[in-house]
Amino acid sequence: MTDVERFRARFAYVIIAVLWSNAVLLAFAGRLGRANNPDQIVAAGIALAAFTTLVWWACGTGWITRQISSITSLGQVMLLVYTFSGHPYQSDMHMYFFAILAVLAGWLDWRVFVPASLAVAAHHAVLSVVYPLGVFPNGNSFDRVLLHAVIVVVQALALSWTVASLRAALETSETEKQEATAARRAAEDARHEAAATTQEAAQERKAMLYAVAEDFEHKIAGIAKDVIASVRTLRTASQQMQAGASEVAERAGAAFLSSHQTSSNVVAITNATSELATSFGEIDKQVGKTTRIVGATTSKAKTVLATVNHLSTKAEDVGNIVGMISTIAEHTNLLALNAAIEAARFGRSGGGFTVVAQEIKTLANQTSRATDEIQGQIEAIRSSSEDAIRAIDAMNATIGSLNEVSAAVATVVEQQSAATAGIASNIQAAAKETVSASGNIEIVSRIATETGDAAAFVAKSADRLDRQSADLGLEVAQFLDRIREA
């Protein structure tokens, strides 16, 4: 239903009310007017109102209802003018025609003014001829009829133009309203579509964010697991490194103490070797002295012929003593060999070489005492040689043998001295190596300590990294929860 139709539907009640009001007005006018048949006039007015009402019920606000209502409403005005025939108000009742014409504009149909104007014109024209007093109080007046007709036409034209303009405006407004409604509906549809698109985009965005969050969580979880596993491995390795460094430091300390003790033992052996070399030097001197004494004895043997027998006995004693010296020399050779063996193993058992060195010293003392005995016997031989001049030739052979023995002893002593010097040199080299080993062990101990400190720092860093990894996992979980809720 358009705005014009809605307005006509509301106006229908107005025009029906006007018709029935006119019927009531005719009843009152019949009492005031001078018409001869007021009851018939009232009945006619009621009939017009009733007929129009029936048509309205049957046809609604259609064209027929509009035309009939325009004619019947003006017909009631005609009856009202007739009722006031001969009354002073009859001329005034003509203004009601103009009022009803203005009321009929409520139908918003200029066509209703055509039959209405024709009806008014016919009423005035016919009654001015048939019953002039029914139109004007003074009877027939064609000029007045013409004037009223012109006025009615002018009003009808003005009302027609006004109604047409108003209807066009309403129709334009209706069109614009429909267009606005269509635009509003289009806007609503666009808004709904935009909302749906926005919602769909939001759902897609949410799904995309959820997928991104799931993928991110999966990747971060894998990385976090790898980091945690690496941290645990790093912590275990640092603990093992720290334990190994502690053990190395302890063993390096023990090795340093052992090396220091070994160095002390090597120094002691070096001192003992030096004393042994000194003893062998003294022995060499004594052997040289013995050789010289034997030479002197040989030179004097020519004058000891008288005591040749005694010299022979003493020479035999000297031979025994020289045998003892030979035995001692052999024993010294064996001991020197043992000392060399012990020197090769001095790093593990230095005490054995000390015993050997002491034994060598003891044998050297015995050799010294034997040399003293030889010296005594030589002195005895020297004393007896003065009486053994005749046995000088025999003694020469014996003294020659003694010279050979002395030379052999000197050779052995020289060899022992050389061996002792070699041992001393090797022991000194071993001492230097021991000192160097002690320094290296000390460096190893310091490095082990530094390694332990570094391992402890790595362990602390691993613990801190573990805590930071846990914090990172918590922050990532909260971030993913916010993304999923967005």
TrEMBL record:
Q: Which UniProt keywords apply?
A: Membrane, Transducer, Transmembrane, Transmembrane helix
Residues forming the Methyl-accepting transducer domain are 230-466
Which intervals carry biased composition (Basic and acidic residues)? 185-194
**Domain of life of the source:** Bacteria
Task: Give start-end of the signal peptide.
Answer: none
Task: Give the region (Disordered) as residue ranges.
Answer: 177-198
Q: Which GO terms describe its cellular component?
A: membrane
Q: What's any GO biological process attached to this entry?
A: signal transduction
Q: Which InterPro entries does this chain map to?
A: MCPsignal_dom
Identify the Pfam families for this entry: MCPsignal
Membrane-traversing stretches: 12-29, 41-58, 64-82, 116-133, 145-164
Protein name, entry field = Methyl-accepting chemotaxis protein
What's the source species for this entry?
Answer: Bosea psychrotolerans
